[in-house]
Write a structure and sequence with these properties.
By secondary structure, this protein is an alpha/beta fold.
Length: 429
């Protein structure tokens, strides 16, 4: 773990390491991923089956074997523990209510001369959702990807998820049933992204692909962008915490570890002007670590990619955090809303001592698919707009074309586009 003060002589060098935390060596795997994409595009299901045999260690007996049946999803749902079932329903309802407030509207303005200008908002026809599966299954990720697509009004929603040894995760199947998803395919990795981008004999081509994944999935999404739209290029998970002396060290320690337990590449960063708090959090992390079932993963993550930074004051702490632009940002201060206007870059902002990042992962309502690696400077969380597109609306009356047509024709003439110019002039009285 990096434990530094902003006044240290080597601070800039160490801080630059944090700013480069999300850099994935995409170039290293791009050749492998490119070959996978080409094979899927050229050979469809036959290549897909070979990839499944190679990476998930089972060979589909037929094209139909690629698809998970709705009956198996219903059975998985029926077998859920009732308390867990109720929790998932609560999460679904809260996520849906939040995303319904995001839905953009079409609009029209009419000018006095009869001109009508506006914007028509429509959903894409189809969306492909990639959901990690296998040993680590995330039904929460399914909800976070399916619900905004449903709210947007997408007609066809398909899900791809890896199934090592042909053993679909029962919890994920149950979540699919809860969400009303009927097209789920047992395909993972870059192969799944290629299949959704180009289509195969079984898996339909989609318009947009969303969802988290490893470096192969992220690279594949980047390579098919343009053939389809994507949500973002997401890297390892991360958390940033701004805290003052009012925060409790054992709260902050477990919050930092909540990201560290994801994987060894996750980043956990605390910035505070309180040396006392920084020292206490460091001790609390050690106390929490040995209690975690995933302690080896968390230990490596926090050791290699964790940081505690002590600043001169809170203003400097906020400025440094804005440079980091974390995926998740907790503001654990006496008056967190006073800092909110000064926070410019973060995927999701958690305000106050009683708002751990984990509440946003599952049940608060906002989406947990968030920009990582500093991309919160220009990316937004996954939302309804990722599954919608806009069309401009333009309608001119005879009075309107006569009123401003001359100016339009002049610009067209200046650009040397005579047909453009004349297409306006022939309509002028």
């Amino acid at each position: 773990m990096i434990f530094v003060k902003s006044t240290d002589t080597d601070f800039d060098e160490k801080f630059d390491e944090l700013l480069n935390r999300g850099k994935m060596d995409i170039a290293h795997v791009s050749g492998i991923v490119g070959n996978i994409i080409d094979e899927i595009r050229n050979d469809g299901n036959s290549a897909l089956k070979e990839h499944i045999a190679k990476f998930d260690h089972w060979m589909p007996a037929s094209d139909e074997d690629l698809k998970i049946t709705t009956d198996s999803m219903r059975r998985a749902y029926d077998n859920l523990d009732e308390k867990l079932k109720a929790s998932l329903h609560l999460a679904y309802d809260r996520i849906k209510v939040y995303h319904e407030k995001q839905k953009p509207k079409s609009w029209f303005d009419t000018e006095a001369n009869g001109t009508i200008l506006g914007q028509k908002v429509t959903p894409v026809d189809s969306a492909g959702l990639y959901i990690p599966g296998g040993k680590a299954a995330y039904p929460s990720s399914l909800l976070m990807n399916v619900i905004p697509a449903q709210v947007a009004g997408v007609e066809q929603i398909i899900v791809c998820t890896p199934t090592p040894d042909n053993e679909p995760n029962e919890l994920l199947l149950a979540a699919c049933h809860l969400c009303g998803v009927s097209e789920v395919y047992k395909v993972g990795g870059a192969s799944a992204i290629a299949a959704m981008a180009y289509g195969t004999q079984t898996i339909p081509k989609v318009d947009v692909i969303t969802g988290p994944g490893n470096i192969f999935v992220a690279t594949a999404k980047k390579m098919v962008f343009g053939e389809v739209n994507i949500d973002m290029i997401a890297g390892p998970s991360e958390i940033g915490i701004l805290a003052d002396e009012s925060a409790k060290a054992h709260h902050l320690a477990i919050d930092l570890l909540s990201q560290a337990e994801h994987d060894e590449m996750a980043s956990s960063i605390l910035i505070t002007p309180s040396q006392k708090l920084a020292d206490s959090v460091k001790v609390a992390i050690e106390n929490w670590l040995f209690k975690l079932p995933r302690k080896e993963i968390a230990k490596k993550s926090i050791g290699e990619r964790g940081a505690i930074i002590v600043t001169k004051d809170m203003d400097e702490a906020v400025a440094l955090m804005n440079k980091i632009a974390p995926e998740h940002l907790e503001v654990a201060t006496m008056s967190p809303f006073e800092l909110l206007p000064y926070i410019k870059h973060a995927g999701a902002i958690f305000l106050g001592h009683n708002t751990p990042e984990a509440i946003g992962d599952y049940i608060a309502g906002p989406n947990h698919t968030l920009p990582t690696g500093g991309t919160a400077k220009f990316y937004s969380p996954l939302g309804v707009e990722n599954f919608m597109k806009k069309s401009s609306i333009i309608s001119f009356s005879a009075n309107a074309i006569n009123e401003i047509g001359e100016e339009c024709a002049l610009i067209a003439n200046t650009e040397g586009l005579t047909a453009h110019e004349q297409s306006v002039r022939v309509r002028m009285g």
